[in-house]
Amino acid sequence: MNALLSRRQLVAAGSALGVSSLLSQYRALAAPVAKQVKITDVKVMLVHGLFDWPMVKIETDAGIVGIGESYWGRGVKDIMLGYLRPLLIGEDPLDVDRLCTKMISRTGGAGATAGTTVTAMSGIEIALWDTVGKILGVPVCKLLGGQYRSAVRAYWTQHPNNMLDKGSCRDFAAMLKQHPYGFKGVKVDYLPRTQDAADPFSRRWSSKDIRSNVTGFENIRDAVGDDIEIAFHCHWEFDEIDALTLARAIEPMKPAWLEDPMPPDYSSAWPQLTASSPIPVLTGENLYTRQGFRPFIVNHGANIVQIDIPKAGGLLEARKISDLAELYYIPTNAHNVASPIGTLASAHAAASMRDFRGHEFNVGHTGGEQAFWENWEKFAIYDRPFIKDGNIQISNKPGLGVELNEDYVRAHLAPGEVWWG
Question: Which of 165, 173, 166 is nearest to 366 (CA)?
Fold first, then answer.
C-alpha cells in the first residue's frame, strides 16, 4: 500500500496502544501510525435543520473518513472550501493542533482570529478529531485529556407560549416533566421591552418591563417546582444597572444563572456586575478562542463561561478554555444549536472537562415552525439514546461514534446543496 497501513492495521494498532489519560501523551499514542495517513479531500454541505448546519467530511488515503459540524452562518462553507481545504490536502490528520495553527495563520484575508474563520476552522477541527479517533480506535474524549464522565448533563432551551399566563406555564411544566429526554434544567428567554419602540437600540429598561420579566419567571418557577433548574437568557439587552436590578429581583426564584445580560465585548462592567449580582452571571457564546475568553476569566467577569464549541475554536480549544477557567475556579457550560453531529462532538469536549456544569439542547420553541425536536435525532445514526435522564450519552465507539443518516439528511439538504457536493 505504498508504505500505508491498511484500515484494519491502523485500528488494530490504535487499539493495542490502549487509552491515554493525559493530553501530553497524545503524540506517544499516535506515534506508531504517524505519517501513515494523508488527507485527500475536505467536503462540505449545508443541511437544513434549526439553521443551515455546515457539515464537514475529511477523507483520507487510508479509507478512513471523519465528520464534523461548525456553527451556522453565511460564508462558513466558502471559507472551508476556499481557504482551509487547500491547506489540509496531503497533511497528516493526526497533527490536529498544528493544522489548526496553520489554518489560523494562513487566513488573514478572512479575519483569522475570530468570527467566521474560527467557526469554519472549528468544524474542520471536529472532523479531524473524528478521523483521528477512528484511526486510533478510541473515542474522541479520550484524546482530549481523558474522560471525566460518560454522560454530559443537558438543559433544554424552551419557554411557555405566554410566561405571564399561569395556565400556559403549567402546560409548559407538564410538557417538560413528561419529556422523554428527562431534562432536569431549562433555560427561558426574557420578555422584550414594551417601551422605547421608537428607539430599539436603547438599553434602557423601565420598572414595568423588568417587573413583567420577574412575574414571568415567578410563574415558571411556581409551575415547575424546585426540582427543575431554571436559567434566564437576556440576549445582551441590558446595561450594568438594569442587569443588576433584574438579578436582584429574580434572586428569590433561585435561577441557575443570568445569561448574557450585557453586550458580548469585555468591559469593566462585567466584573462589577459579577461581584454585585446575587445570582451567577454567565456569558461566552459570542466569544472566540482563549483570547476572547481570557479577560472574562482572569478578571472574574463571569461566574460561569459558556463556550459554543463548534464556533469558538473546536474541541481542543474548548478544553484549553475550560482549563484556563478552572485555574480561577470558574466552571464551564456549552452553548449549542447544532445537529446531533455537532451536539455529540461538543459533548465529547465537555466529557473531558473537570468542572463542567451544563450542555444546551436547543431545537426551537414550542408551537413554532422549528419545533421539531422529535425529528432532531433522525439526522444521525447512534448506538444509544442521544439524551437519557437529562444527560447526553457518550458512545464508546471510536471517534465521535456517530454517523449521518444519509436518507434523512438527503431529504433535508439546504436549497441548492447536493450530497457531499
Answer: 173
Residues in the chain, total: 421
Binning the chain into helix, strand and coil, the percentages to the nearest 5 are: 40, 20, 40
Q: How far apart are CA 215 and CA 218, in angstroms?
A: 5
Whether the predicted pLDDT of 116 surpasses 90 = yes
Strands (E), 158-262: 185-189, 229-233, 258-259
Under the banding of pLDDT at 50, 70 and 90, the label for residue 31 is low
CA angle 403, 409, 415 (to 5 degrees): 140
Report the CATH architecture of 7-138. Answer: 2-Layer Sandwich (3.30)
Fold adopted by 151-397? TIM Barrel (3.20.20)
Q: Which three cell numbers stand for residue 171?
A: 402546560
What is the per-residue pLDDT across 341-359, written as a single tens digit (0 to 9) for each? 999 999 999 999 999 999 9
Sequence-ordered list of residues with C-beta below 8 angstroms from that of 9, at least 6 positions apart, any chain: none
Res 169: pLDDT: 97
The CATH 3.20.20.120 domain(s) of the chain lie at 151-397
CA distance 207 to 29: 59
Q: Tell me what pLDDT residue 94 has.
A: 95
User: Closest by alpha carbon to 300, among 258, 271, 257?
Assistant: 271
Phi-psi region of 157 (alpha: psi -120 to 50; beta: other; left: phi over 0): beta
